[in-house]
Design goal:
The chain is α+β, with helices and mostly antiparallel strands. The protein is built from 3 helices and 14 strands. The strands form 5 sheets. It has a 5-stranded antiparallel β-sheet, with no helix packed on it. The radius of gyration is 20 Å and the shape is globular. 15% of the residues are buried. The model has no long low-confidence stretch (mean pLDDT 82).
Length: 204
């Protein structure tokens, strides 16, 4: 006969869990959401109610294409337009992790008659997700210019991305071109967390 032991977590007041969650990064909280349905519901509630402010809810549009490759040129900004049917705040952008030693620049701006210049001065930080396949870019804590974009409902915004080789790094094979993974199945409309996001090629 084999005795089975069931390990039960101690009962801890929700206020303590909220404090614990507040110290976790976005990727760590996503992992915690998968522990059990109770944690998933609690974390979702804490984020939506503003009690946990250090993370965002993830909107995933692409699926990673096995062995797919995308080319990034240092003088080219990749762009896509997005709008949401409810007000949202963009606090980070996920990109496929590039090869080599690189600098990733990300910006967002409303599409209007007088477009503001692209901002490359905001200090960004990053973390790896999905075993290093994805790099999530977000604002550095205590930065003078926070990386936060408030999207009004039904207003088109432009998301821009530039990846280039860092100054002083040596890449004899790349020739100034950066390579990374590629996504597939990009939909024109994605619904997640009770928000409908629409995507299209940027039209100025």
């Amino acid at each position: 006969m084999v005795a089975k032991t069931v390990l039960e977590l101690p009962s801890i007041p929700v206020e303590v869990w909220v404090k614990v969650f507040s110290y976790l990064s976005g990727p760590d909280l996503f992992r915690c959401e998968g522990v059990c349905s109770s944690w998933h519901k609690e974390i979702q509630f804490q984020v939506k109610s503003g009690k946990v402010t250090r993370r965002g809810l993830k909107c995933q549009r692409l699926k990673t294409e096995p062995k797919g490759i995308t080319e990034h040129r240092r003088n080219v900004w990749d762009t896509i337009s997005v709008k949401a049917d409810k007000p949202v705040v963009i606090v980070g952008v996920g990109v496929y992790s590039p090869s080599g030693v690189t600098t990733i620049c990300v910006d967002a701006r409303p599409i209007e008659d007088n477009l503001r210049p692209v901002d490359v001065s905001t200090e960004l930080d990053s973390c790896h997700e999905e075993n290093g396949v994805i790099t999530t870019v977000f604002g550095k804590p205590d930065s003078k210019r926070p990386f936060r974009f408030i999207l009004e409902a039904d207003k088109w915004w432009e998301l821009m991305l530039n990846i280039k080789q860092q100054k002083g790094s040596y890449d004899p094979m790349g020739g100034g071109t950066i390579w990374c993974g590629r996504g597939t199945g990009g939909k024109q409309e994605v619904k997640c967390h009770d928000v409908t996001f629409s995507f299209r090629n940027t039209d100025r």
